[in-house]
Write a structure and sequence with these properties.
Elements (H helix, E strand, L loop, with lengths): L2 H9 L10 H27 L2 H8 L1 H9 L5 E4 L5 H17 L1 H12 L5 H37 L8 E4 H30 L5 H6 L1 H15 L5 H35 L9
Parallel strand pairs: 1-2
């Protein structure tokens, strides 16, 4: 075997050649978990002191509803003595996860990296580098969508009724809606990952474009106010563009893969 062949073969082996026992793996896992937990606690303490501006931001739609409908009682309510503190702890936890993300993501990566080949590491870095900014971009878009959804839902309030939002449920709704929009922005990355893994071909992905456009349009229509057609088209357009970008990358990867297999003689030539 030549030096080049040895180097090529070595590239397919895990970077860490040492075999760790189950006990060593558990010790390493415990250490990574403790570091992640410590980072989360510190981030939660920091986040606890910045909950006021976030509460003001997420309750801005309530203030607008109250200003537009002075005849209706609108406001944030707490059903128990500890509910205000519980709301702030929930917010500190969720914000702390985001603040501590660089540390706990690195701990996860450092734990699984020794068992990955160089090629797997390259793909993983690429997917993470694409998924993280898309997720935060989706969460930002979600933060713009949430007020419209709350104001839209308030229009269904029967005459004579009041809009009193329980603090914990209100925050859970806004957070989950932002996460849903954030995850929807990351779905194209998962499509590409499935293509690279050989689960789906680029042709199979592009064949579902009609369903993808329909889902994006319906989602955008539900997430934006009925009268705001521009916002609906903008959100739907972003989701559709991301889908076609994922399909295009998958077709490109399939083409390169077929060329490589054909050059190696593993793929028969197309009939004339």
């Amino acid at each position: 075997m030549t030096a080049i062949d040895k180097k090529s073969a070595a590239g397919d082996k895990p970077r860490n050649e040492r075999r760790m026992s189950l006990g060593a793996h558990l010790v390493e896992l415990r250490r990574r978990l403790m570091i992640s937990a410590a980072a989360l606690v510190v981030a939660m303490i920091v986040a606890f002191f910045v909950t006021d501006p976030i509460i003001a931001f997420i309750t801005a739609p309530i203030d607008r509803i109250a200003a537009e409908h002075p005849e209706v009682v609108v406001g944030l309510t707490f059903s128990s003595v500890t509910s205000p503190f519980d709301l702030r702890m929930r917010m500190a936890f969720s914000i702390g996860i985001f603040l501590a993300a660089p540390i706990w993501l690195w701990q996860i990566w450092a734990f699984i990296m020794p068992g990955l080949t160089r090629k797997e590491i390259k793909y993983t870095v690429g997917f993470v580098a694409a998924a993280i900014p898309l997720f935060f971009a989706g969460c930002y878009v979600g933060s713009l969508v949430v007020p419209h959804v709350i104001e839209l839902m308030a229009t269904f309030t029967p005459e004579g009724a009041n809009n009193l939002y329980e603090g914990k449920l209100y925050y859970d709704f806004t957070l989950k809606l932002m996460l849903v929009v954030g995850i929807s922005f990351v779905l194209p990355v998962f499509l590409v990952a499935l293509n690279v893994a050989g689960v789906m071909t680029g042709k199979a992905i592009i064949k579902g474009w009609r369903v993808a456009v329909l889902i994006a349009t319906v989602f955008a229509a539900l997430a934006t106010p009925a009268a705001d057609v521009v916002s609906m088209l903008l959100l739907a357009g972003i989701l559709v563009v991301l889908f076609f970008a994922a399909a295009g990358l998958s077709l490109l990867f399939d083409r390169r893969k077929n060329k490589r297999l054909k050059a190696e003689g593993l793929l028969p030539d197309a009939p004339a």
